[in-house]
Every structure is written in structure tokens, then in C-alpha cells.
Amino acid sequence: MANCQVNKTYQEINDKIRRGQAVVVTAEEIIDIVRRKGEVAAARTVDVVTTGTFSPMCSSGAFINFGHAKPPIKASRAWLNHVPAYAGLAAVDVYIGVTEPCEEDPLNKVYPGQFKYGGGHVIQDLVAGKAVHLVAEAYGTDCYPNKRLEREITLSQMTNAILCNPRNCYQNYNVAVNLSNRTIYTYMGPLRPRAGNANYCTAGELSPLFNDPYYRTIGIGTRIFLGGGVGYVVFPGTQHNPKKPRAENGIPLGPAGTLMVLGDMKRMDPRYLVGASLLGYGCSLAVGMGIPIPLLNEEMAHFCGVSDAEIMAPIVDYGSDYPAGTGQVLGQVSYAQLKSGALSLDGKEVPTVPLSSMVRAREIAQHLKQWIESGRFLLGEPVEPLPLDNEAPFLSTTSSDS
Amino acid sequence: MHAEMLVLRFSEDVVDQPIIYRLVKDYDLEFNLLKATIYPRQEGIMVMELRGHPKNFRRGLKYLREAGVKVQRVARDVRRNEERCYQCGTCTAVCPTGALYVKRPEMEVPFDPSKCSACELCCPVCPARAMEVRLNRSAL
User: Fold this and answer.
1) Contact of B138 with B81, CB cutoff 8 Å
2) DSSP notation for A242-282
3) Residue A189: which of B90, B102, B106 has the nearest Cβ?
4) Residues of A designated as active site
5) d(CA A97, CA A20)
6) Are B116 and B91 in contact (CB under 8 A)?
7) Local structure of residue A322 (DSSP, 8 states)
8) What is the DSSP-derived secondary structure letter of residue A314?
9) What residue ranges define each of the domains in chain B, with the CATH number in brackets?
10) For residue range B41-79, what is the model confidence (pLDDT) as tens digits?
């Protein structure tokens, strides 16, 4: 920024990190610093702000190359612990998606389904060092004659395991209520009838994309904390929708930006990749992610200074509006209000329920802060920013995002 | 439907009477027998899960006691696997007693077993399946 009083480069900040002199604070800690000292002084004293989030992120999965056996196989169908993996890639490459349930799962036949084990649980088991049961089937070729492979395999025995999540880290999300007369089970958790509870699922002021609403520093190539290891932002996530209406402070008023992220699963930690079972809905994976935001100038200090009171989320009825795709929003509520324990809807007090773990989000932000302070983690300068102007066409009429 | 695990003790005087038959026939209760023994002094003990309409269940229990059977409820504890719980707070949507609650402003999710009624509503709702039911085996 030409008109800024503070101008720092990625290189300067990385040099300070290498020397162990970088000043790093979390996205919660920066709020008070900006308030007390002002944006310019905050940008001068603080180099990096660390963010964190931990919640179920359904659009996640892993590429796995399980290695060649003797005789070799060109797998066309594959299962890990009875969870089907997509095998339409080369010979021994598969992709396991976290929402894929175990093959024998009764699903919602016994409503609400329990979805006890799925792709997310396979990923957690692998990262925890447990052996999983691999079955691969093939039609057999001259070069890959084997037609069936069955064995126990651990993460360390695999040639590669790469966590690659097409859509994570939503910049804002709906607050779900249920105005119908029966309890419903959604990806936003259980919703009791007649607005018995209001569920929300972001970390608020700690959440990465609330601290960089216009993607000034988060882009393709940003190095991040992912699942306890190091990962990267590799592309805008699917359904990335930066054109969503924004408040004056730049923060979108509904689900907007998303990230596609990737990292080496072999270096991850089961504490930050937890298989999830969403009653009546399906399987998922709770993903821990933290993104460092360099305070290049006072403008970034301004953005990182945002607090829960200034971040608004839309209230949506999952009883009828959401499944019908009407796009109807019942009202806006701040994260400060959501975290207070109740919101007011049509004069009725509705208890609020978090689905996103603030405790673990804070832990991740602290973890990342220590990595940077100790000089072990350098900032990645984006090679491309995330787009600010394209609109996902299918999001213009409804807001079906999960 | 109400179901509970019960330990029934039959004294020497009643051990030869068709008490369980009456329980099924007159009170429309289902039972699932886990253990049945007659001890040397002719005292019998039965461990069973009894299930039925709550009203029938209460009446059935009254019948048992009046027939001279000592009825002991087996406590079911709900415990939290602290390793598995990641403190999101989803459970607070269904917990009727406030045993699971959000501590503010930290947004921690403590579990207070002393307030837990062991209704088990939290068990299937927990995304990480951290809430576990255990029978209090000491009663068996």
C-alpha cells in the first residue's frame, strides 16, 4: 500500500522469524493491541497474527498411493476399513473422501442414522498410526495381472498420503434454526422444533478469513497449519464466492470465500484431524487449520483488529427455507451475541449452540504462534491472490453450501 | 418406551412363583435376561433389561415389590472420553440438565457428572462420539 505509514515485506518478516525476533500474537490478542495502541503502532510492533479454526469440514479427503504389490495391480475399486475410496486414478492411487460412509452402514434407514465410521475416521486412524484394512479389486491387464489385493497397511507403509481438501475454512456461515414442528438432523447438528436452538459453526474473531476479508495476504502458496502439520493454500476452494454482500468493514454477511488446502498427511496429528459422525446426516472430518497473517501495514492491523461484535452471520431456517433453496435470511446476528449463549428471533429467546471448537481453535493459533516464534515456520508469499470478483453462478439464487 | 437394567432378588418364599410370567402378561413388558441364578440357600437373583411403556413399567415395578421381590436399579453412567472430546458444544443443544454446558467467555465445554441424569441424548449427537454409556457393574 503506497499510502501506508508502515510497509513491511514478506522477506523482512521472514528474516525476523529466522533470527527469532518476530513478534507474533494470536487473532484474539491483537484486538486489544489495536484498540490500545492504534493500527499504525500495532502494525509497527507486531509482525504476524495467527488465526485458528477447528470444526467439521465436509469437503475434505486424501490422495493415497498405497504402493505396488507383487504381482502389481491396477486397482479399479478400493476400500479402506470397508470405506470405499475412488480408484479411477492410475494403478495404486486412490482418493478417500471424508463423507463416504462404511459400506455396511445402514445410513438413514434407521432414522436418524448414526454414521459411526467413514472416510474421516479412516484418515484419523491412519494419522494415529493404526493399520487399516486395504482391499483393492482389478480386472487385470498384461502389465498389472493381479486382480485382488487384501492387506493391513499403515500410513508409514504408504508411498504417499496427501490431505487435499477442495473446500475448507468457509469465510462466514449460516446460523441454523428449525421453524418446523419436528426435530431435524442436519450438517449443522440437531435442530429442535420451533427454533429450539440456533447452531453456528465458525470460530468468529479467530477464524482465518475474518482477519483478511479481502484476501490481501491469503492466496495461492500461503503456508498454513493443517491438521497438526504444515500445509498450503493451493487454490480458491470450490464455491468460493467473494461477491457475497459485505458489511462496511469488508466482512461478508454470509458464506463467501473458501480455500482449497493440501498437506503431507504423514506429518499430521490425530488431535487435529478427528473423524466426525453427524447424527442423521453423515460422516465428516473435523479439521484443524491455522493461517498466519503478516501485518504488512496498518491496513492489515485494521483487519486483524476485528472482534466478534463486528462480525455478522445470517440466520437461516433449515426446517423449510434451506431444503427448499429459497435463500431466505431471517436476520443477522453478531458472533458476540452468538457466543453470549442466546439470540432473539421474533421476540423469542433462542439458545445458541457452537459446533466449532473455540478451545481447539485457540490451541491451534497458539501452536502456530510458537512455530513462528521459534523460527521453524516461515511465511509463504502468495504467487496469486484469491479472486475477489468472480461469483459462483450456482450460489446466486440459493445458498446451498455445506 | 422406557428401559432399565434391573437386578431382582427373590427370597426363598417367592422363588417358585411365576412372577416374570405375570410381569409380561399383565403389564405388557418385554424382558431381556442377562443372568439368572439360584443360590444354595434357595435365594434367586436375576439381572434383566425391562422395557415397556413408562406407565406399565412403573406398575410392573410396583407389582414386583408387592410380590416380595427386591428390585435394584443398575446405574447407567454417562462418561466423557476426554481424549476424544474436542469441546465443540454440539451436545449442549440436547442436554436437558445442564451437565454439559458452555463456560463463558472461554467457550470451554465442561461436563459435570453430578448433574447428569444419564438420559444418553448426548451420546449419538456428539460428532466425536466422546460420550460413553457404562453400566455400573459394581451392582451386578
Assistant:
1) no
2) TTS-B-TTS-BSSS---EEEEEEGGG--GGGEEEEEETTTE
3) B90
4) 143
5) 39
6) no
7) H
8) E
9) 2-73 (3.30.70.260), 79-132 (3.30.70.20)
10) 778 888 888 999 989 999 999 999 999 999 888 777 899
Is A357 within 8 Å of B93 when comparing Cβ atoms?
no
In whole angstroms, give the CA distance from residue A283 to residue A120.
7
Min CA distance, B8 vs chain A (Å)? Answer: 33
Identify the helix (H) or strand (E) that includes residue A288. Answer: strand A282-290
* B89 and A CB contact within 8 Å: yes
Q: pLDDT by residue (tens digit) across A114-129?
A: 999 999 999 999 999 9
Amino acid at A114: Q
Q: How many residues does chain A have?
A: 402
Residues of B in contact with A355 (CB under 8 A): 88-90, 127
Q: Is the dihedral of CA A33, A39, A41, A43 positive or negative?
A: positive
ipTM: 0.93
Peptide linkage before A84 cis (omega within 30 of 0): no
Q: What is the pLDDT of residues A40-87, one digit of tens each?
A: 999 999 999 999 999 999 999 999 999 999 999 999 999 999 999 999
| Amino acid in the structure at residue A54 | F
At B116, the pLDDT band (50, 70, 90 cuts) reads confident
Q: Please state the rounded mean pLDDT for residues A128-134.
A: 98
